[in-house]
Amino acid sequence: MSTKKNLWIIEDMEDLQPIYQSILEEEKYDLRFFTTFDEFKNAYSVNKEPADLIVADIFLDDGHFFQLLNESDLTLNTPFLVISGSDEYETMCNAFEADAIDFILKPFNKNEIRAKIEKHLHRIDEIAQETSKSLEALNLDLTQFTNKEIKIIESFNMQEDKTLHRNDIVKVIWKNIAIHPNTLDVHIYNLRKKLKLSNYSIKAIGNGLFKFIEL
Questions:
Q1: For an engineered disulfide with 37, which of 68, 81, 83, 170 has Cβ 3.0 to 4.6 Å away?
Q2: Which of 164, 137, 140 is CA-nearest to residue 152?
Q3: Which residue from 139, 134, 129 is spatially nearest to 152, judged by alpha carbons?
Q4: Is residue 130 part of a domain?
């Protein structure tokens, strides 16, 4: 029996909720709706098992989705696609710069949004399986690492040469949140101490680059 996928939909037009429900089969999806960013943020902050995918309208009653995300202290680690009635070039660029995995124009085609959601969820599952295999190969006790530390390890091991620039690590872990320059260094320092117990480390190789190595 297949497991339902959790879809969180941020949409201030409540009359669209039954349309989403008619498009996305109840047998496949658990849908959760939010009409404001604040409502979504509060739920995301406390939920230990958030959505598999987020569908977000850009222009909400309480503000612009990306602006609100930037101003909040929320670290959004869940893939998201955005929907907007604006087809302006700047709007689309802002969406992809914020790491949206897709952009859908309103009024949307029902078959298009369903097909795109299914495609992205399938790809998310593939990436999760690839990541799981790469971590298993390292034979680490993941209970000793924080979620952010695990994501850093995953990021290195998804690269063929196991090398990342510090800016790429920051983007993966903290997305669009501005952090103090020393924040990453503290995480790397603590992670090195834990990795050393398993004969691994993260080495600075110059020009802002780090490499995951075996000791």
A1: 68
A2: 164
A3: 134
A4: no
8 Å CB contact between 60 and 10: yes
Q: Report residues of the chain scoring pLDDT below 70.
A: 1-2, 48, 175-178
Q: Which two tokens stand for residue 69?
A: 């995300």
Cα–Cα nearest to 212, from 172, 161, 167? 161
Burial class (CB in 10 A: 0-12, 13-18, 19+), 124: middle
**Is residue 33 included in any domain, yes or no?**
yes
Return the residue matching tokens 């669009």.
Answer: 176
pLDDT for res 1: 43
- Domain assignment of residue 209, given as a range: 139-214
CA angle, 203 as apex, 175 and 160 as ends, to 5°? 65
Spatial distance between the Cα atoms of 20 and 43, rounded to a whole number of angstroms: 20
Q: pTM of this prediction? A: 0.70
Degrees, nearest 5: CA angle 38-70-113: 70
Closest CA to 8 of 39, 33, 29, 36: 33
Q: Provide the pLDDT for residue 177.
A: 65
